[in-house]
Amino acid sequence: MSYQKNDNLESLLKKINSLLKPVELEEVSKIDQPKFPNLFLIGGPRCGSTLFTQWAAGLEAFSYPSNFLSRFYEAPYIGALIYSMVTKPEYQYRDEFADVNADFKLDSSIGKTKGFKAPHEFWYFWRRFMKFPDVPCSKKEFEEQFDFETFQKELALIQKAFDYKPFLFKAKIANWYLKPLNENIDNAIYLHLYREPLAMTRSLLKAREKWMGSLEKWFSWKPREYDVIKDLDCYHQVAGQIYFLEKEILNAKNDLGAKYIGFSYEEFCENPKEIYLTIIKKIKEIAPDFQAPKYTGEDSFIISNPVSEEDELITEALSYFENKYGKLEY
Predict the structure, then answer these.
(1) Do 49 and 113 contact (CB within 8 A), yes or no?
(2) Nearest by Cα to 72 from 81, 63, 60
(3) Of 87, 143, 191, 217, which has the highest C-beta tally within 10 A?
(4) What pLDDT, in 10s, does the model give residues 34-52?
């Protein structure tokens, strides 16, 4: 499988979005706040977030960014209206979109899903509101540069297009800016999905090899402490990457307060219904008039945690950071 961008597609999407953006901004000017809290999914790479979003997409409680919607990063409200026209039963006529509306499978390749309706990471949408640096900037710089007002209004429009279902989407790109995000965005809940660090490090090393073709090449998010780990061997690089990303989020827990929900990949796999009920309860604490459907998802998932020949090296690398900077306290 090729992970390279399709330049022809990128050019076409740029043209389509530039044509739609003026109409989208006109709609943005007419809306205020989201009706219900939106759900920001945070956490480190390889934490199980794609499985989680696929699971959530199959329920009736939430809206989410699909592969289709992701192509309207400058005009997601218009994209959401088109998506609804194509997928909602009340708009169907003689099975014209029957192939599009087939259920998607719960599988992916390094976060990439297949299918019109399958969930997408939605990073282009985030990058509309700020040019995120390769290594995280300060919280002050983020607060000065990020367009909070338009961002929040776009989320309100997307929620409106999806019949006011809370919008659940990945927010890992903002792992380092949770305090200013929380202070400037209303109606948000932060879902911290974490995983046993050994499993995340093991999986991220495999992703390096699969995506980059080498264990030595960097892959995924860089922590603020990138300079501390960039010259270490690959095991310490990746272990440090996981460690510092998780530490950043855990340090922000108090800032997020009651808007923070933390749960492990293992807990989610063992009892997804309980996680669903916890999220719904939190939404209703903020918005008592929210009507949640009954849980219709899976009873459990198989926990993916294959043993690696490199586990001893990974464990040693993780211990290095915990001994030097303190244990991660979830």
Answers:
(1) no
(2) 81
(3) 191
(4) 999 999 999 999 999 999 9
